[in-house]
């Protein structure tokens, strides 16, 4: 649990049991509901021992994992984990719809409506709004965690794979060429490029081997453009057979493989740009920032036996020896936005068809508030906690972690936390038993 002093400055996090004792004794009050933060009324930072914590950030296109952990001789102890779910696709769709509406207005003989692109120049460091959204979301949570915890450093994945190393293995000498991470970098790149499925039969969810499109025995090289992924049966069936002979009866598959093999990863440039911008934003905070690659993170997970999740990836970013423990549950924060300024809803052609209420607040609540509803009787009888959607009729909907409950009267609601643009849920982390025998963790068998 996060703890702040009487002046809202961060202290060392504590266990849930200690937080309950502090609240029961009256020494602490609830500072924030989600994530849960308590405030000590009789303690200041100057009178406390604050060892500090570190952050691990695993940025992604749709999901970003953030872990708060304590480090002791490169052995990490996970304290808190959050999975940030972005809405970049929604941002892109809304911008495309707005552009279509504007284009329609310009085509209706409105010659005075000048195109916007003729007199605007993109500044240096500009990112598309859907990409900027991912950076801003991650930075928002890093800044929040810095307010609630004594963060002393940040570990972040700056690149998912080292493309320069893969194309030119001699860039750093023999040790860099045949280092421990070389195979992991190539495999991560191929998994992302070929969609984590067999290039020949399309099967997914099975062990995949790296296959040479042109076999080594026939003069093929180890360049990434000559590598693909194949399941074990396809890999053994193809062997050293030329790919045009192996796929003679499937010309469409052959054409797709030849076309995709020469193409770079479609969104590699966009993801690299986003991660670079995130690294620059983190460096601007003044905190020490350690960068790593996705291949190194995967290698760390294999060493500790941890499963593949976004939050566990964040816990394994950078240089580590072992992981002592990790949180049993994670918080999932889904970006929802704060609504829109428009007071009308448009049809498919851009004409207003529905009037929205003038005020966002109804009976003291607004859409997105975190509330608790205690219904004494009826079909919705029970206790419901979640995100509310208000209605002018006074009967609201509440979305919990597992269902949508509709038509609850406003008098049954109690406000827990004002809307902040996020929807919060709690999920169980994939379990593994960190055993420090030989400083290597082992997976839990369920």
Describe the structure in your own words.
The chain has 446 residues and is an alpha+beta fold. It folds into three domains: 2-47, no CATH class; 52-111 and 123-337, no CATH class; 358-420, SH3 type barrels (Roll), CATH 2.30.30. It is built from twelve helices and 21 strands. It has helices at 16-25, 88-106, 129-148, 163-167, 173-177, 182-193, 232-238, 243-246, 251-262, 268-284, 294-304, 310-315, and strands at residues 2-4, 10-11, 28-32, 37-40, 53-58, 63-72, 75-85, 151-159, 208-212, 227-231, 289-293, 322-325, 329-335, 344-346, 352-355, 370-375, 382-389, 395-399, 404-409, 413-417, 422-428. The strands form five sheets. Strands 5, 6, 7, 8, 11, 12, 13 and 21 form an eight-stranded mixed beta sheet that branches. Strands 19-18-17-16-20 form a five-stranded antiparallel beta sheet, with no helix packed on it. Strand 3 (28-32) and strand 4 form a beta hairpin. Helix 2 (88-106) crosses helix 3 (129-148), helix 3 (129-148) runs parallel beside helix 10 (268-284) and helix 6 crosses helix 11 (294-304). It is globular and about 75 Å long. Residues 173-177 and 435-446 have low confidence and may be disordered.
